[in-house]
Amino acid sequence: MSDQAHVPTGHDLAPGEEEQHSVGERILGYVVGLVLALLLTATSFFIAGTDLVWQPSIPVALIVLAIAQMGVHLVFFLHITTGPDNTNNVLALAFGLLIVFLVVGGTVWIMSHLNQNMPPMDQFIRMHS
Amino acid sequence: MTMTATIGHAHADPHHIGIVVEHPGPASKRIVTAYGFWVFLLSDIVMFSCFFAAYAVLVGQTADGPKGSEIFEHRNVAIETVLLLLSSFTCGMASIAADVRNRFWFYLGMAVTCVLGLAFLTIEFREFANLVSRGYGPSRSAFLTAFFSLVGCHGLHVSAGVLWLLTMMAQVFAKGFRADILRRMMCFALFWHALDIIWVAVFSVVYLLGSAV
Amino acid sequence: MLGKLDWSAIPFDQPIPLVAGAMVLVAILGVLAWVVVKGHLPYLWHEWITSVDHKRIGVMYVLLASVMFLRGGSDAIMMRIQQSVAYQSQGYLPPEHYNQIFSAHGTIMIFFVAMPFVIGLMNLVVPLQLGVRDVAFPTLNSVGFWLTATGALLVNISLVVGEFARTGWLAFPPLSGLTYSPGVGVDYYAWSLQISGVGTLVAGINLVTTVLKLRTKGMNYLRMPMFCWTTLASNLLIVAAFPILTATLAMLLLDRYLGFHFFTNEAGGNVMMFMNLIWAWGHPEVYILVLPAFGIFSEVVSTFSGKPLFGYRSMVLATMAICVISFMVWLHHFFTMGAGPDVNAIFGIASMIIAVPTGVKIYNWLFTMYGGRIRFTTPMLWSVGFMVTFITGGLTGVLVAVPPADFLLHNSLFLVAHFHHVIIGGVLFGAFAGFTYWFPKAFGFRLEEAWGKAAFWFTFIGFYVTFLPLYTAGLLGMTRRLQHYDVAAWRPWMHVAAIGMGLLCVAVVCQITQLVVSIRNREALRDRTGDPWDGRSLEWATSSPPPVFNFAFHPDVRGEDAYWAMKQHAKEQQLEHHPEPEYEDIEMPRNSPTGFVCAFFASVMGFALIWHIWWMVILGVLGAFATFVVFAWRDHDEYVIPAAEVARIDRVNVEERRSLVSMAGGV
Ligand code: HEM
Ligand SMILES: [Cu+2]
């Protein structure tokens, strides 16, 4: 079977661990992360409190900003990368996120439909009085 | 238990994929420990997601009590956020110090992290105490139930983190930077950063979006 | 001082739980006294209770499951008798007692029989199949086991101190809220599940990490035995689903203890959110149970057909597909709760889709058997019995997954028949198959086949006699959890079911006899080679029982069915003389009482929480924390087995094995 190519492996990183870097580079990574996170936080709080932007866009903007900030934390503080040494860590993360998405999304969807068809007692009473 | 990699056995491709990457053997303890903890963190995040889901469902159920916009103080939340962010940074500094086995910077980083964490908890506690004293405790309405549980659950995690942080410092003080202690330190850093990520979701969903309801 | 606890908690007026409790107590004290008098206590403490050896912990899990199986089974007998006599009468069990029995039965069977049984088998076998010396976190493994035992202990304490929940095994509010369940029953239920849930989570994290990070050289993902794959999928589900259970029960407890309003009818709480959340855990849970069983059947069918597993890759794919899809169907447990047709339709279709990968698996097993030289040993009988039973059980599942049909069948005995069909036919048959299959590995001798086969046939027939009538009764409109009834048409079916229960009891007696007889005849049944079934995966490559370190050398894996390949290789070169390898020192984790001590404090804490004894709660929490700090402080977590000792142990095994190969080669 001559078409086999053998790839050396054995390189694997623990979650949170960085490739070999000097201390200075590592500190710089955290500084960049901190600055980005602070910027995103400030933007979130600003957008939530302002009437300078189109109001219906605010929830979407807040969610996007939150996701971006989580990404910043993952990359700069938790050192998650797309490299092959991180595959297992990223797969586990992806599985976790899928579950979070299913649980939160599913619950909100299901419960909003239940409420449509069978409102809680107080609404029910209000509707019929 | 670490094994060195041996590569290349010719007859190992029953399904003719072409590329065979020989598995090198059990991973190092450092990777195993951190990975296990990583999996734990994901499960913890799933746990949080239930409280988030409950909050999303119950946020409108104020039972004629206060709405989010009436009780949330964005200035406080912003301060809390900055405190946690800074603590994530100092925690990162402490882990670098631990990796290069520098006691002074390790203790300093951990101590500052601890102080920032405690400051965060104090602000949160005062917010809770203030709400309860105004009669807006968790039993007032389903909305407040969900709010107190979600934010309180995060607060409990931070408290546990502070306790863990102190035992980490004590361990380094008593035993030095032993391999097992460095592994635990790595897990602690993961924990602390993860709490920060959850806080991002908390301030965005609970406080900022929650004020809009 | 003692919170809500006083003498009225002991049910002096109810003879059944009191006598049962007294009997259990006498049995426990008797065993304890025997252990102490015979001087076995140090052995038990050093070799078992503090053991962090995955094989020992696995055995203890299975033991716990077996004991609790007897308890849950007693509940089942009582319920079947009650329903067959309670026609137009109260029967012999008063309603409040009957309600506790069916709640305890469900809780125990799922959490303290099925779960520990499969977790125990995974613990015992997976590191061996992966060719490694231990799991990822040996001490935590012990913690996990003992916390599970704590949960079981609390449930059993409720028999004599206080009461158990009367709410069914999922404690739906508002019934489980403080208004309608003011007693301690629901608290027993919730705290024992919280504590054992932590144990299960720990086991899940441990096994996921073990499979993903600890595999021997060359054990690529696509060379792992099927059981390792299903273990991975099942434990991924544990890690993802059990936190949901924890959160949901925490909310229920907050409602009960601190007046929160998650699931109350007042102040905007939402009862239906409990169903939603608990089933978001509950459906994955059924796959947590059944996936390992699928893995066991794969191993058994392939071994006893003497063929590699047919369609290995499709099996892997099906397993992982089930792992993900099982998180997308939970609403089918509450179709009738009022969601619109669109929601119901989507979840109904998703539920039916799960049947597809399951079907793939069935075909794979059938094709593995096709053309094989099948040996109908006891494990193989359980597997074939499973295939027959699970197909019909799955079909009734697809039936109730059709929303309009489910509006008729929901909460009827038809549903009860469905899930017993899949859980007994799937999980329990799997557990028994795995038990007989790996028993020689764990203890070094085989189980008596005749009694095993008798147990199988009584279970198989008894199962159908017990549960087929429930389908009919369900279609005749009989709802579940009836303490008495007035409909004459249901009565004969209840009688038949009770007879079936009798057959199942005979089966249990056969199982126990099998164990006793086999222990007596253990010399004749001894497995000297470590490979009693002509197995294919690495657990058979070491002696039975394996040494603490499992393998003197990490095996070097070159393909699927690793051990089979090694045997073929050895036969081909049987005349070659292999020089003895260089043995090396082996480091193994030291035993630790952490798990046991921690569980002790957890029991104290759980009991105190149930009875509102706050000072004792604090004591328990502090104790558990202190235990962990002490553990973190220890200086030596490993001990060394010297190379000479490793060599001595290994040589014996190599000799036995060589004789096996030369015998087989001579044929
Ligand atoms: C083809 C696969 C399956 C389908 C489509 C299916 C479908 C369903 C549906 C729709 C229900 C709810 C019916 C009702 O409440 O009215 C149900 C209940 C149940 N199923 Fe299945 N099922 C399947 C396989 C399994 C398996 C493999 C297990 C366990 C190993 C299982 C265990 C249960 C349990 C425990 C319940 C009911 C619990 C309760 O209400 O207390 N099912 N199933
Ligand atoms: Cu289901």
Automatic annotation (TrEMBL), chain A:
A single Gene Ontology CC term: cytochrome o ubiquinol oxidase complex
Pfam families: COX4_pro
Subcellular location: Cell membrane
Sequence intervals crossing the membrane: 27-48, 60-78, 90-111
InterPro entries: Cyt_c_oxidase_su4_prok (IPR005171), Cyt_o_ubiqinol_oxidase_su4 (IPR014210), Cytochrome_c_oxidase_bac_sub4 (IPR050968)
Gene Ontology biological-process annotations: aerobic electron transport chain; electron transport coupled proton transport
Coiled coil: none
Keyword Oxidoreductase among record annotations: yes
Bilayer topology: Multi-pass membrane protein
Molecular function GO labels: cytochrome bo3 ubiquinol oxidase activity; proton transmembrane transporter activity
Function text: Cytochrome bo(3) ubiquinol terminal oxidase is the component of the aerobic respiratory chain of E.coli that predominates when cells are grown at high aeration. Has proton pump activity across the membrane in addition to electron transfer, pumping 2 protons/electron.
Family per similarity comment: Belongs to the cytochrome c oxidase bacterial subunit 4 family.
Subunit note: Heterooctamer of two A chains, two B chains, two C chains and two D chains.
Protein's recorded name: Cytochrome bo(3) ubiquinol oxidase subunit 4
Organism: Bradyrhizobium neotropicale
TrEMBL record, chain B:
Keywords from the named record: Cell membrane, Membrane, Oxidoreductase, Transmembrane, Transmembrane helix
Residue stretches spanning the membrane: 35-57, 77-97, 104-123, 143-166, 187-210
Main location: membrane
InterPro entries tied to this protein: Cyt_c/ubiquinol_Oxase_su3, Cyt_c_oxidase-like_su3, Cyt_c_oxidase_su3-like_sf, Cyt_c_oxidase_su3_a-hlx, Ubiquinol_oxase_su3_dom
Database matches in CDD domains: Ubiquinol_oxidase_III (cd02863)
Cellular-component GO terms for this entry: plasma membrane
GO biological process, one term: aerobic electron transport chain
Subcellular location as annotated: Cell membrane
Keyword Oxidoreductase carried by entry: yes
MF terms in GO: cytochrome-c oxidase activity; oxidoreductase activity
Membrane topology category: Multi-pass membrane protein
Residue ranges occupied by any Heme-copper oxidase subunit III family profile domain in the UniProt entry: 35-211
Domain of life: Bacteria
A Pfam cross-reference name: COX3
Keyword Phosphoprotein among record annotations: no
Protein function: Cytochrome bo(3) ubiquinol terminal oxidase is the component of the aerobic respiratory chain of E.coli that predominates when cells are grown at high aeration. Has proton pump activity across the membrane in addition to electron transfer, pumping 2 protons/electron.
Entry protein name: Cytochrome bo(3) ubiquinol oxidase subunit 3
Organism of provenance: Bradyrhizobium neotropicale
From TrEMBL, chain C:
Transmembrane segments annotated in the record for this chain: 16-37, 58-81, 101-125, 145-169, 189-214, 226-254, 274-297, 309-331, 343-367, 379-402, 414-439, 451-473, 493-517, 617-633
GO biological process: aerobic respiration; electron transport coupled proton transport; respiratory electron transport chain
PROSITE patterns: COX1, COX1_CUB
InterPro entries reported in the protein's UniProt record: Cyt_c_oxase-like_su1_dom, Cyt_c_oxase-like_su1_sf, Cyt_C_Oxase_1, Cyt_c_Oxase_su1_BS, Cyt_c_ubiqinol_oxidase_su1
Membrane disposition: Multi-pass membrane protein
Molecular-function GO terms, alphabetical: cytochrome bo3 ubiquinol oxidase activity; cytochrome-c oxidase activity; heme binding; metal ion binding; oxidoreductase activity, acting on diphenols and related substances as donors, oxygen as acceptor
Superkingdom to which the source organism belongs: Bacteria
Gene Ontology annotations for the cellular component aspect, listed alphabetically: plasma membrane
Keyword Cell membrane listed: yes
Entry's localization field: Cell membrane
Record key words, sorted: Cell membrane, Copper, Electron transport, Heme, Iron, Membrane, Metal-binding, Respiratory chain, Transmembrane, Transmembrane helix, Transport
Family statement: Belongs to the heme-copper respiratory oxidase family.
Protein name: Cytochrome ubiquinol oxidase subunit I
Annotated source species: Bradyrhizobium neotropicale
